[in-house]
Write a structure and sequence with these properties.
Two copies of one chain form a homodimer.
Chain A (H helix, E strand, L loop, with lengths): L7 E6 L3 H12 L1 H8 L3 E7 L17 E2 L2 H6 L3 E4 L7 H10 L3 E4 L2 H18 L3 E2 L11 H7 L5 E7 L2 H13 L3 H11 L7 H4 L2 H15 L9 E2 L7 H9 L2 E12 L2 E12 L11 E8 L3 E8 L3 H21 L21 E11 L4 H11 L4 E10 L4 E8 L2 E2 H11 L5 E10 L3
Parallel strand pairs in A: 1-2, 1-4, 2-3, 4-5, 5-6, 8-10
Antiparallel strand pairs in A: 7-9, 7-11, 9-10, 11-12, 13-15, 13-16, 13-17, 14-15
Chain lengths: 432, 432
């Protein structure tokens, strides 16, 4: 194992819900993070507008809050910007980069309008600038685009990158309700803001499309270059018509590389129900890629929320920290733990079992009892058609999860039960 | 833009279908790769068993083939191992690492049995060891696990990581056929090997599960630690029964982190049809993750094939090359091109249009003609219910892709047509 070096100094700019979740995780998961980085991550300050306001959910001690972000960023090895908006975020990030800090940001508005300035500054100074959380929240998408697919050619990026509008359109599709009613409900549930303009007019997706097109095609695309239409014109009748022809309406960000150049657009789009994007429900995000070598790829997950966004921010932070230490040849695999490996007998799972039983009153209860006796509960039971020729019937059961050994023993026991003619099939079940 | 440094020397071990695709791409895409790396990648040799055998599909000049892999690896900055099997792959990789080369491999058998030896050697020497292609082929999965999710805690990995068995089970589900018949067909189509043991007995998935569990849980799991059951016992009746209760059978690799340790297993598994893994068809792969912060994530794509695998290998190679040059602070965004950005008018797409038309003979033909006159062809047309009250009927059309400007102009033109009472809805369509 590598010797653990001295702590890396982390500055946090902004302490809203995402900032609080990041700060909380830096404390709660400090030991694991230090092992993965090769050095402890020390939070040296949190820049906020009002340092006297308590933020207990962040777990940050009051003396770490400061209103002097300018000075804070010059003292840090790593700066995490979660303030949002263009200024002062841009100036602070540039200042941090100038001082040689690796920077992490989730600021799609800034990146969409002025990404190239930041990219160039980080590149010039030889420091990390990463922004996984700016598009599709928790989904590892930008790093795969920048790194994993660096030897391939991306031809198309097509994604659901706004959870609010997907929630609304999905709900309209499922219930047949009108947009205004579903929007009101989304606002009540907290899925949509009181002022939903940025989401429903497509502006949020527009900035993300600019970032995606830039990374995917290695070229400069700004938010204003992206054609943008929102969902306010989508009617219940449109959704119904789409359904009739086997389609569903999604707000998509679509970026294409053509022989003539690139195009990027956001608009409500009909997609066939057989398309992988059609089965993205609720507020989930998903991005579909088409590349020259890999072909079709899709990434799916939560696009927003404090903890999912914190996952993306922390992943960037750990990578930037690793690069500070060892030149980024990758995670230290030799820091592996030696966790115990459980045998299959101790693994918890559900079983699907098909039995041939005597078709007599009371059999079903007696079979159920042999599970109950082992403390295994039955999720569902289904009796097949009676076959009068041999007086047997099939019985299918799905159990609730239990230790594999207990399930296996119960099934073995069933073979000895008089009512049970045969155990025809035993398969495990997951994802219930 | 960074000054381009001197070429990085690349050695290729093995020149089968994947090796040939990698070599071909190194030549065909040399300029783009050099721009993304910051230095040209120069192929200095390809180690093969028989150097006299021509391999025209690789595009490699005959003088680069050698049988002396031992010497080749000591002369390279970057070594790509695509021989497979445990020896001599292990010795050659260790030798390359010892000489300070960054190494890329797709060798799941070797990593599954002896990954930790290789990880430790690379870590000790401070060089890259990457192996994205070893699990789920083209899908960027291992890099996200090692890097993007480095600040999160993965609790479960559940995936379809063998395309052959997914093809077989999917076909059984769709057609009701027996396994033996579908297997025979898969062999004829080239989806299954003449000796399908490694796939159908689950051994291929078993090695991949070991790699996934190791990376996901930062611990050591070897192939032999993974409980493994293949698909040979799955019957058409099982599939039919699963269908009746809203489930589908998939061969899954499942790795769990529990308070007591970790478990890893491969077996046929019933999953609800509503689960994202249920809609993975044909020979596609997909891996579903459950993490503490990000929640549910899924990665989907092609798990095998020469070009998809080459995509993963080349992504690793570009990253390793970047790390050789600049300590890996990330891709150089300032190397961005300035590609033209096409306006929406020049973007190609399909339209869905709903019209209210006079319900008279010949109207449908006249509407179709106005598209034809603009060179736009109609994919489908559907006439709604006649509303006798006002003598109008609705007409829905989906066009084939055309330039957005031409479509918009045609729709505008329709508004002037006497037969057309109203253009009720115009939406774009993708994914047809």
């Amino acid at each position: 194992m590598h010797p653990v070096t001295q702590p890396l100094k982390v500055a946090l700019l902004g302490c809203g819900v995402v900032g609080s979740a990041v700060a909380r995780q830096l404390t709660d998961d400090a030991e694991d993070l230090a092992a993965r980085v090769g050095a402890p991550l020390e939070l040296i300050g949190v820049a906020v507008r009002d340092a006297s306001q308590p933020r207990p959910e962040s777990g940050v001690t009051p003396d770490l809050f400061t209103t002097d972000a300018d000075s804070l960023v010059t003292r840090a090895d790593l700066v995490v910007e979660l303030m949002g908006g263009e200024e002062p975020a841009r100036s602070l990030l540039l200042r941090a980069i100038e001082h040689g800090a690796g920077v992490v940001t989730a600021n799609k508005a800034l990146l969409g309008t002025d990404g190239p300035t930041l990219y160039a500054a980080a590149d010039e100074r030889g420091v990390d600038l990463s922004f996984e959380a700016s598009v599709a929240g928790a989904i590892p998408l930008l790093r795969p685009l920048r790194e994993s697919l660096a030897g391939d050619d991306v031809q198309r990026v097509m994604g659901i990158v706004n959870g609010t509008t997907n929630f609304i359109l999905d709900k309209m599709d499922r219930t047949g309700a009108a947009l205004a009613d579903v929007l009101a409900e989304a606002q009540q549930l907290g899925y949509a803001e009181a002022d939903p303009t940025a989401d429903v007019e497509g502006y949020d997706a527009q900035a993300k499309a600019a970032i995606l097109a830039s990374l995917a095609f290695h070229t400069r695309v700004a938010t204003g270059d992206v054609h943008c239409e929102g969902i306010m014109g989508v009617t219940a009748e449109d959704i119904k018509d789409a359904r009739k022809i086997g389609m569903v309406i999604k707000l998509l960000a679509i970026c294409d590389r053509t022989p003539d150049g690139v195009s990027a657009r956001v608009h409500p789009t009909l997609v066939p129900r057989s398309h992988p994007l059609a089965s993205v429900h609720d507020a989930f995000n998903a991005v579909f890629l088409d590349t020259a070598l890999a072909g079709e790829l899709m990434f799916y997950g939560r696009g927003a929320g404090a903890r999912p966004t914190a996952s993306a921010v922390l992943g960037d932070l750990v990578q930037a920290a690793r690069h500070r230490i060892d030149g980024g040849h990758g995670p230290r695999e030799s820091a592996y733990a030696e966790l115990p490996i459980l045998p299959i007998a101790r693994t918890h799972t559900s079983y699907f079992i098909r039995l041939e039983v005597r078709d007599e009153p009371g059999v079903l209860a007696r079979v159920a009892n042999s599970f109950g006796a082992q403390g295994i509960s039955i999720e569902s039971m289904r009796q097949g058609v009676r076959r009068s020729a041999d007086g047997l019937a099939t019985l299918q059961l799905v159990t609730h999860p239990a230790a594999d050994a207990a399930l296996a023993a119960t099934v073995e026991g069933l073979r000895e039960v008089d009512d049970v003619h045969d155990v025809r099939s035993v398969l495990r079940v997951e994802g219930l």
